[in-house]
Amino acid sequence: MKILFVTEKWCDGKPECGETNTYHNLFNTAAIAGHSYKNVFFDQYSRERNRKHIHQAIRDEAVGCDLVVFTPLNIEGSPMPESFAEIQGIKKAIVFWDSVGNPSKVNESIGYFDFGIVMDSTDTCKGHANDRKILYTFTPQDTDIYQDDGLERDIDICFVGSVKRREGRSNAINEARNAGLTVVVAGGQRENRLSVDEYARYLKRSKISLNCSHALGRVQMTGRAFESMHCGALLMESPNYHLGKYFVKGKDYVEFKSSGEFAQKAKALLENPLELSRIASAGNKKVVNNYNATTFWQGVEEKMASV
Length: 307
Hints:
Number of helices: 10
Strand content: 15-25%
Shape: elongated
Number of strands: 13
Strand order of the largest sheet: 2-1-3-4-5-6
Number of domains: 2
CATH class of the largest domain: Alpha Beta
Largest sheet: 6 strands, parallel
CATH architecture of the largest domain: 3-Layer(aba) Sandwich
CATH superfamily of the largest domain: Glycogen Phosphorylase B
Order of helices and strands: EHEHHEEHEEEHEHEEEHEEHHH
Radius of gyration: 20 Å
């Protein structure tokens, strides 16, 4: 399959934030799955050329492709979804990394595409007219980056990502530290920026990876859950029914319902390394075998064929 990705080149369209995660989540996984691709980077295009011409550039680059994949971004220079209606004879998909914040907008945008790809939810548009056009799936990972390299796990607990305006995350971290546990906190792309390799290395060195999916009043499935398991860390996750459709809590990962319970369960696991290793290994085996680049892109091809 030949794919045209119409995406940002840089995180948030800002060169100082480094390359977008779309490189390892979509471009690299497409290559791993045996597909060829090319790109139109709308943020780079708007900086270097007349952005009024980007729609023609997209149409020109789409010639000979089997699929056009658009990842919208709320920045200057990002094409509007309705502009893709002009592309005919080629299947078109729109990707939503953060769908649960505005399901009505998701439903509206999908109307200009053959289907949508939602990676943070299993039911964003249930009850909406275009729900049948959505592929609910997981965030695929580049396993050349996110894999268990057998590094020494010298970090007991880590959280990699932002804790700003994320009360659940900061509360869990503080509760664990108050219980005498060591928690390493490192930034993501935006906060105390790490490269993707540096980010992955924290997970590869960690026994436990903390993930709180309750943020800003909603629950969503994050890529961090899959990154953690691919790297072989034991995932500890706040209640998340989306994730529960992929993994079994208590077998593949450990759920906690409060900051206090997180500290209690993390301490018990660190004191029982065999149990910790058993759960971490089960999660790693399942994600590697079932939720990889090949199965993700197979799902995309199946959705293409059905719409």
